[in-house]
Design goal:
Layout: E1 2-5, E2 10-17, E3 27-29, E4 34-37, E5 43-54, E6 63-65, H1 67-82
Length: 83
């Protein structure tokens, strides 16, 4: 999940996994959470697993997550950082 583009070629990404997680910060990601595209199965977004990467490393996009869901992820990430 792309959260933000930074100056230059980097972007901030958030892990998405189809594996069950025992993580109080995980946010479910279902088919209805996508504006375009989607994933083959329900998954979990892990806002406590943020990382940066060069845009050139991203091979393709599986879809576009709705703004409301992205806002939920950003809010949770900020909450985690404030703990």
């Amino acid at each position: 999940m792309l959260l933000a583009e930074l100056d230059g070629e980097d972007c901030i990404l958030c892990q998405i996994t189809s594996q069950p997680v025992r993580d109080r910060d995980a946010i479910s990601l279902a088919e209805h959470d996508f504006e375009l595209g989607g994933l083959r199965q329900e998954s979990n977004i892990r806002p406590n697993r943020l990382f940066t990467a060069d845009r050139g490393l991203i091979l393709y996009s599986a879809g576009r997550v709705r703004r409301e869901k992205v806002a939920e992820v950003v809010d949770r990430a900020v909450e985690i950082l404030r703990r």
